[in-house]
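During the first year of the project, the team set up a workflow for recording each protein of interest as an amino acid sequence followed immediately by a discrete structure-token representation. This format lets reviewers and collaborators read both layers of information side by side without switching files. As required by the reporting guidelines, we include two representative entries from the current panel. The first entry is reproduced here exactly as it appears in our internal archive.
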Amino acid sequence: MSVPAISVLTSVYNAEAFVGEAIESVLAQDFAGFEFLIVDDRSTDATARIVADHAAADPRIRIVTASAKGRVPALNALVAAARAPWLAIVDGDDVQHSGRLARQMDYLARNPGCGVLGAEVRMVGIDGAPIERPPFTRPLDDAGIRANLEIGAQLSHNACVISRDAMCAVGGYRPAYRHAEDYDLWLRLSEVTTMANLPDRLVDYRIYPDQVSSRHVVEQMRNTAIGWLAHRERVAGRADPTDGFDAMPPLSELDTLFGPGAAAYVRRRVLDRVIYSPEALGGDAWDILIGHIHEDNSRDERLWRTAARLLRAGRPIKAGRVAAGLLGLNPGLAA
């Protein structure tokens, strides 16, 4: 069997409403030299049957089994099974524009030093209709991507083509960075290869309320901030304190791992992301908010408005505890 030019990798879970269209958009690509590997991450709906039906009808599709449930084991199983020198990431609820692979492979042929190539995406709703969002322009060249990496991922994971050699050189996806595994990957890849983005919108990226990124924003942002700290350690020539971890340690251990100020940095990064969400601040981010006020001695003026939002959201006790902490009164109340 000849080696394909590119391996398309899809991990999918409970996407029966979308996965058929997602698969068909890959099979309809203008670029022909690909294999299509799919992991069904132990779905409980009809996803596995839909995937199997498509695999039976098209020999380019190969079903891969992961050793454990979860996105990171699924992605690593796909990488291990891939035969091509290039890996294209495709989400099981997105739609690929017909020229995606051709455009990206053409760029990579003309720019042999590039090891990671992203593209723009078009946001669509659950019905596939475009969603109007404020314009967001990703940096196109390696220098621009690197200059903005601390802010967040400058590549859209579901629109990227990655060198398999570079992926293997950095060890693939890491389980400790759950919900931020792509950001951690970009940081490590930035240390071994160059990266770029195409300005073209080549993927319809589906947005809907029950997405993982919507439900786990606090953990995602916490692991993103820790990922940046680990990146700084590696760039400085020091060991990555999170290397080999299966899960992240509590924030109370970060100063020991990374040095003084690490936990405060992570708390600030999380709060910058969720500061306007009383649901997050009254839930998963509550301990981070209180730690920011008391352990970091923060008097951030925005937090008074946070107390007001908590009050309006029907959380008067927590609103009062935030206000007390900001006034330096009865710190025990805010614990």
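The second entry, processed by the same pipeline in the following quarter, appears below.
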Amino acid sequence: MFLILFAIWIVLNARITVEICIIGLLVAGIGYAFACFCLGWSPKRDLRLARMSGLIVAYICVLVVEIIKSSLRVVTIILNSHDPIKQSLVTFETDLESQFARAILANSITLTPGTITVSVDGSCYTVHCLDRSMIDGIQESTFVHLLRRLEAK
């Protein structure tokens, strides 16, 4: 987190000089100390986040790909306006254990065009989708697989 704060400082200053770097190190140090003492952050969390960064990047890439695929599917549904839209409300369960992972999955579903997470009750999700094929296989999707791996770490 210290390096991220320092990088933000450098980006916001838009140039690199010795003075800006020294002041940036001080500001980043103060910000990191504040995060540690007042917000419960710790160097252990930094290491854990660094270890999970590969999975986080992979999850973001999968999410972007799914958003693009779903966007194309929604465009196809819109352009084929002579076909009736077959909306459906789908309920499914997942074996994700942490509330954080469940919230990430619900938000990922909602971010994907054509699907909206209507409710999450424990491990039971209710999703509205423009076409049932948009939500098929979500229980064993790459989203859930990567979230399980993130939970394991």
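For the second entry, the following points were noted during internal review. The radius of gyration is 21 Å. The chain has a mean pLDDT of 87. Both points are flagged for discussion at the upcoming steering committee meeting.
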